[in-house]
What we know:
Shape: globular
Bound molecules: zinc ion
Number of domains: 1
Largest sheet: 3 strands, antiparallel
Strand order of the largest sheet: 5-6-7
Number of helices: 7
Order of helices and strands: HEEHHHHHEEHEEE
Number of strands: 7
Oligomer: single chain
Helix content: 25-40%
Amino acid sequence: MIKEASKKKCIFCGAKATTRDHVVPKCFFPTNNRFNLVTVPCCFKCNNGKSESDEHFRNFVVMKAGRNAADRWNDTVVRGIRKNRREFGRLIRSMQPVEVVSPSGLFLGRRMQVRFNAEPHDQGIRKITRGLFFHHFGRILPFDTSIDIGIVDTSNSSWSYGLSEIIPHLKANMLGDLKVFQYRFGNTIEDPDTSFWLYTF
Ligand SMILES: [Zn+2]
């Protein structure tokens, strides 16, 4: 149940809400898969001019998540990147060769990698987290709450190390179908503002 007062406030800055914002940017979902998407109250300023940063964030996730994510998105997103030449050019220019070395020090070859600029990614994750917190708990996450972000590489077999005790306590959910965006979450009884969110792209 969402409190009447919090309905009218932007969940990102506390200003008067005049519109609604998609928690996970619409551009993450193929056009035929845009149902079951969550929106939250948002002010004009926080909502305005965000489509470019949304696309930057999405492209980053596609490049990072690689082939599997592209397949799941039915290649719509990848085509979208190609169409957007400016963004694509920027990505190409940020590519650099890296040497891949196994954990035991064996040289595995070279591949191209996009230079990591974590800020658009972290900003996108923070917005999703604030949005889903509001959606599930019916109140705004206090603005002074810090959000710590970590990236888990699930291709590494020990990815769940340190998380195995938390994961069974989390609730699972997803937005859209095609498994475009799955997530798990939970908060602590002692301090309801302390929560844990695990997103799978
Ligand atoms: Zn705002």
